[in-house]
Amino acid sequence: MPYPAKTSAGQILAAAVTLLERGGQAGLTIRGLAAELQLTPNALYRYYPSREALLSAVAAHGAGVLLANLSRVAGDPGALADQYLRFAREHPALYDLYMTCGNLNAEQQHIYSQTWSLVVERLRPLAGPHSQAAAITLWAYLHGLVGLERSGVYEGPENKPRDTQSFGLGLLLAGLRSQSE
Amino acid sequence: MPYPAKTSAGQILAAAVTLLERGGQAGLTIRGLAAELQLTPNALYRYYPSREALLSAVAAHGAGVLLANLSRVAGDPGALADQYLRFAREHPALYDLYMTCGNLNAEQQHIYSQTWSLVVERLRPLAGPHSQAAAITLWAYLHGLVGLERSGVYEGPENKPRDTQSFGLGLLLAGLRSQSE
DNA sequence: GTCTATAGAGCGATAGAC
DNA sequence: GTCTATCGCTCTATAGAC
Hints:
The structure is a homodimer. By secondary structure, chain A is mostly helical. The first copy, chain A, has helices at 9-27, 30-36, 51-71, 77-90, 92-100, 106-127, 131-151, 165-179. In chain A, helix 1 (9-27) crosses helix 5. The first copy, chain A, is elongated. Chain A binds a DNA duplex through residues 1-7, 29-31, 39-43, 45-47, 50-51.
């Protein structure tokens, strides 16, 4: 065989994640990825039909990692929140892609759905019939916290308190408790 | 005069906002902006030394608009939140730039500081000594809500409830009240 | 202050050989 | 399945004329 396989879809995906974390979404290019894998750009099109399809695959991979992480959490919503924030902080670009990527196929979307269901179920003991609304509220709070940290809002001269993560979470949970009375 | 002024920094800024809203941050290019103003790209460099400086100016403009909007709010934190969400929804790309733009000079940063102070002061009657932590919590929730809406989380097959904005806000305020007891 | 012209670099994607 | 070669397009920024 004059041209044996030098790579695979899985290898490409792994390298893509590396490049994504290194240079953000714009830093993940077909050419750069090919260079990382010591291939010519054209070779990648045998595995992913376009850059967009590759991005979707990476996003789905991130979704799978997050789902696995959250599935391992045994405790209360606070532990779930910690795990979510941990993922977002450790893989900022992957998290960003996870949150903004459109163009997912049905199989990829299903991973997202599973994550949503998991969170809703975990909140049900606390929020009962408002479990979905509570899930969105918690999600929004956590997602916003990540965004705020990334925007550098703590770097201004106003001396904003850094240890507000648990304060806000406590506020939400206290609100839930006061509502179920 | 062979080359009379055809534009001004203010005109450029206004056109830049238009372009930004039309095509996002990546859609605001020197060339596109010049075309919009019927100028050659080079002419713009007389007014802004680089694309980055232009982006900072646009971000500061957005910050000024938001500050003015929030200043006009008379009522409770709920009204403040509504005005914030309104700005983010009506000017999505401007809001995005506002939240992510670095490289601001001292004068531009000052607008951000004023906004922060305004929110903290408005929350003091409700949150007292925890006014700053409450401000960050509220900000994170609102910012996250905007991000979630934009990510299309409501478009999945899970039938997530759309009317959670006031639910979450109520949760936070209830939490604050239960804490001040 | 605006112009023409260009340097210098990046990108996704395709055609066709092997 | 990978290669070489290339099309066609994008962009920021600068040099120097008027």
